[in-house]
Amino acid sequence: MNNLSCSCGQQNPQGTDLCGGCGKPLVASENQQVLNMRYEGAARRSQTYNKTIVDQIWNFFSSVKVGIWIIVILLLASSLGTILPQEMYIPPAVNPAEYYQDQYGFLGQVYYELGFHNLYQSWWYLLLMAALTVSLIIASVDRFFPLYRSLKHQRVHKHINFMKKQRLVSETQLDKTANTEKWLNSLKGKKYNVRTDGTSILAEKGRFARWGPYVNHIGLIIFLIGGMLRFFPGMFVDHHLWVREGDTEVIPGTNGEYYLENHQFIVELYDENDELFQTAIDRAGGVVVKTYQTNVTLYQRNDDGPVGSQRDLQEVDSYQIRVNDPFKFDGFGLYQVDYKLHELNKMMFTVENDETGEMIGEFTVDLFYPEQQYDLPNDYYVKLQDYLPDYYLNNDGIPSTKSRIPDNPAFIFEVNSPNQEKKEVSFLTIGRNFDPTNENVYSIRLSDLETKHVSALIVRKDYTLPILVIGGFIFMIGLVQGSYWTHRRIWIQEENGKVMMAGHTNKNWYAFKREMAEVAKEAELEQPVDRTEDK
Amino acid sequence: MVELSSNLLLAAFFIYIFATIAFSITIYYENSKSVNKTKRWGWISFGLACAGFLAQLGYFVTRWIAAGHAPVSNMFEYTTFLGLTIIFAFLILYLIYKKPVLGIFSMPVGIVIIAYASVFPSEVTPLIPALQTYWLHIHVITTAIGQGILGVGFIAGLIYLIRVVDQSKRSKQTFWLEAVIYSVTCAVAIAITVGVFSLNNYSVTFNWINEWEMEAQLEYELPAIVGPYEGELITADQNRFGPLLETPSWMNGVESPRKLNTFFWSILSGSILYLLLRFILRRRIAAAIQPILKNVSPQLFDEVSYRSIIIGFPVFTLGGLIFAMIWAQIAWTRFWGWDPKEVWALITFLFYAAYLHLRLSRGWHGEKSAWLLVIGFGIIMFNLLFINLVIAGLHSYA
Q1: How would DSSP label each residue in B131-163?
Q2: Sorted alphabetically, which Pfam families does this protein's record hold (chain A) (predicted)?
Q3: Strand pairing class (A248-250; A236-244)
Q4: CB proximity B215 to A under 8 Å
Q5: What is the pLDDT of residues A273-291, one digit of tens each?
Q6: What's the ipTM?
Q7: Is A335–B333 a contact, with Cβ atoms under 8 angstroms apart?
């Protein structure tokens, strides 16, 4: 492709708007009232090539217009996901298809059918995120390098047409010789970095603000890539762990290496009579939680013992896990997330002879580890025929259990007495004692029960966090760099007894104009005129 | 201490009103071109605004001392604090541009927001476990400051629009501008309405099933236009007014029937106030304000609005997304969980990002850019007020 040669001798690549040397407007910019100074008028790849498919993809994603569309579509899509709750926020035990229809009617059904109940994990939402990442990369590369080169190689002396067509321009007729020293001092007084070439001056400050957008885009790219790494196995561990008081459980996700003992789970409430919080606590119905806390001890398994031997646990550390204060060890975090108070743990029963009123004996059923048979004094024994920890009647009317958590335990006991051939069957649920034959002599009664608190913890390990932190940090630096500093340039040059001053900034023109006016006043030059303002 | 704190807030409220009046006087002198008086009154107004700001800062500090945590933990506290940050952002931008016009708009917006806070229960609340960390202070305060600065961007955009929109004939622009002003009147009117009824200690109580499916009582401080879903008046209140309607069952925010009722009242009282103003002024409200702005340079206010956004956007991003993610990682085990409030913070971020790109690369200056800022502030208000009405997410604390 032919280069564009400028009258100053500079060879410019195709697509250049303003000569890279003297700034003279080339073909395309000749008729502009005020020069378009974006990217210093340098040639960008996306504006130059459009032949191959690679060029076209590059041009598509390098366009800011496309970038904005991606942002707007992402914004609208995100808002769709908040119309109804996402699947992760509906009750865990329900069937989502039914739940959305029951709760929200037709709208809910459509929402579910369209997959909006899992919108943020949908393929198209992730595709939008990916498109945003690609756009960020290509648009930044396309602009950064030409801009960087232009600003690095910019010359002090500019073509007269470049000066004339800036937005802020002042022209002064000189009646004596030029007082360059005065101009320089007034510029330096405003903290400009000044370069000279003969009598021409280029004053510049805050150039580093121009890199802000690229720095923050790099940060965002790192952040988004970090977020995508989550989909690789091993980068991310997320498990639930329910531990009862007094129990020791293996910590999931640690390959059986770590165990956790729950000594105690504590729920602390605010004092109802607290003077300061009284009104608020009353409004909340008298119950406001102050603390959720699990006191735990962490054990590590000793691998020295022979395989299959009794597990040999070595105490590592103890901690009080609270909300906002997770327990960290070996890259893992244990977070307090949920609890269950007074979960049934053991039930005590008595066996009585209904005819004589004689007490036969007592036995205790561990609801998590029930035994098959309970021996009573005098050769009586009770067999546990069936045990349903969470009893309900299923659709066919048959007693079943919903889970293995003893929320509503039911038992079928068989009482064996040495005096009777017949085995008596009793069916027990909480508050009910059911005798199927109505001929039982011995009855079983619930006499006592034991409950325990259960603490729910989340086990987390996230190797992507450092990448996200770095990405977020770079992003913030770039954002501040680009927002809180401005790049300002003032050119002053003299030709045939006429002094020309021109100014350019990348933002906040009003404040810049004010500064330039002060410089002009001090330098004894005419006040600058804003050429975009209506006369 | 709590009482002292409330008195300081009340004092701040009145000083802000005086400051607004002082700014109006400044504008009067500015428009009649008396330079010295403009300058003097400019400083008086600014001084009053600062005094109000300090009084409210006093409210903030004393309440912090009394409660043992920063007063940003419920809707009342957050909303008053947002008012404070708008005033704060205004003070900064006033120092840069020294335009009293910004004052006669920013001060009332701050006042309205603080007054609107009185709609929410104002007592000191104890902190639930998830809030007991210094991240509460860092995250919420930074976010509010960011939103306050973005809010001043909206105010400057509004000034721009009132200045440039052609009021000689009806158009889409005049309609939407009136719509914005109507929303502000609604906020003013509801604050007045709540004030009147609370002076009379009005209350009406319902038995209802709350958002956690528990039987509870719900007290309204306003007559019930809309009652709770399947709610019943308690026996003592049987002869009280209402309810005419029932809250739909899908509104699951914390105490949403009461909020919906307040919303209905704000529409009702706002409409009355707005129509009254229209009746008195005999033209569009924006048309009535326009002459005051005749000496305002639109270009300048275009820049003020943009500058507010570039100052506020990084602050909002830091508080509303970055600090939010750090805290979410500590308290909720994950930095991002697609909670509605989180999503709307992201939407706010994306919206202002789109604004900046449109402005920088597509040349959306002036009117287009000002309308965008109106929408942007609408998103912020939506996230503050409406998300809590409909959804009982992780962020519903009031």
Answers
A1: G-SHHHHHHHHHHHHHHHHHHHHHHHHHHHHHH
A2: ResB
A3: unpaired
A4: no
A5: 888 888 888 877 778 888 8
A6: 0.88
A7: yes
